[in-house]
């Protein structure tokens, strides 16, 4: 991910809302801000 896009990506992560259940490794935001990077869940939430 380009360093200059960190603030934009962080804002997208902070505004994301996901409903339980979420499995560890599930894609939460695909291709965040057009960077080609997926944001994934690092913990399962029942």
Protein described:
The chain has 46 residues and is α+β, with helices and mostly antiparallel strands. It has one domain. It is built from one helix and two strands; from the N terminus they run αββ. It has a two-stranded antiparallel sheet with strand order 1-2. The longest helix has 10 residues. The termini are far apart.
Summarize the structure.
The chain is an alpha+beta fold and about 45 residues long. The chain has one helix and two strands.
Globular, elongated, flat, extended or rod-shaped: what is the shape? elongated
Give the overall average pLDDT.
Answer: 96
Estimated helix fraction: 10-25%
Computed over alpha carbons, the radius of gyration is 11 Å
Run of helices and strands: HEE
Count of alpha and pi helical runs: 1
Q: Return residue spans where pLDDT drops below 50 for at least 5 consecutive residues.
A: none
Distance between the termini: 30 Å
The total number of structural domains is 1
- Strand tally is 2
Structural class: alpha+beta
What topology, given as strand order, has the largest sheet?
1-2
Summarize the helices and strands and which ones pair or pack.
Elements: H1 6-15, E1 27-29, E2 39-40
Antiparallel strand pairs: 1-2
Features:
46 residues; alpha+beta; two-stranded antiparallel sheet; 2 strands; 22% helix; DUF1667 domain-containing protein
């Amino acid at each position: 991910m380009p360093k200059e896009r960190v603030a934009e990506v962080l804002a997208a992560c902070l505004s994301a809302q996901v409903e339980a259940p979420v499995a560890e490794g599930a894609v939460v935001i695909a291709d965040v801000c057009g960077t080609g990077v997926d944001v994934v869940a690092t913990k399962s939430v029942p």
